Amino acid sequence: MMNTVNDFALKQKKYIPVFPKASGKPTIYIEGYPCEDDEPMAATGFHGEQIRIFSDQISRYFQIDPHIYIGIDSFIYYREGDITKFVAPDVYVVFGVDKNPQRRSFYTWSEGAVPTTIFEFLSDSTANQDRHEKVQIYLGDMGSQEYFIHQPEMEKPAEFRGWRRSPSGAIVEIVPDAQGGLFSTALNLYFRWEDQLRTHVRLLRPYLPDGTPITTSVEEHRLRVKAETLVEEEAARRQEAEAELERLRAQLAEKKNGNA
User: What is the pTM (predicted TM-score) of this model?
Assistant: First the structure.
């Protein structure tokens, strides 16, 4: 954990990638392209908890740059004029486009950009697609740089995998490290999962390149409270020391007056 919020802010500015501005413009909605379906956002509670916490972490981390857009379970249309060419990833990050306004769907040709990195959290209904055909759709057809999948349910075998496009355009699987973690070169972030025994969620967590974890909102609140408590305790100690010093001065003055 970071000792102070200021320490993290310095690292945040250091590690966030530099990228060009997209050629298009923010587009809230294009008539004729549906922006919702009848499917629920999360297939399971595990899936929903993972999306909620992870999207919050990623959104807060990238909030300092006005040209990074975070999409959560919304439609991405990637071929103009063909409403069948769409996907709806759990979480995706787009570099170079305006963060605001929010979009009903994301239209790659209008924005002049495609998602840089995409995350899918496995559920029974979509796991096979996530592992196989979406790799080609996201990285091949749509042109994203990276794609990651993760199994958030602790009762099922751990599964965290990632793919990226090589400089030649080939799709290659990212090799995990000894801890099973994967590094996103596009986002300049490291990802590794940890089991949350209380909720039974296998939580995917983002880290800075130096190993500093990106906190959850709950963790950040605790850090702020701790920092504020330390400041208050230091102020109280200073007041006590000043009061004691004033008491000693008064005693010394009294002795001098008595001996006069």
Answer: 0.83
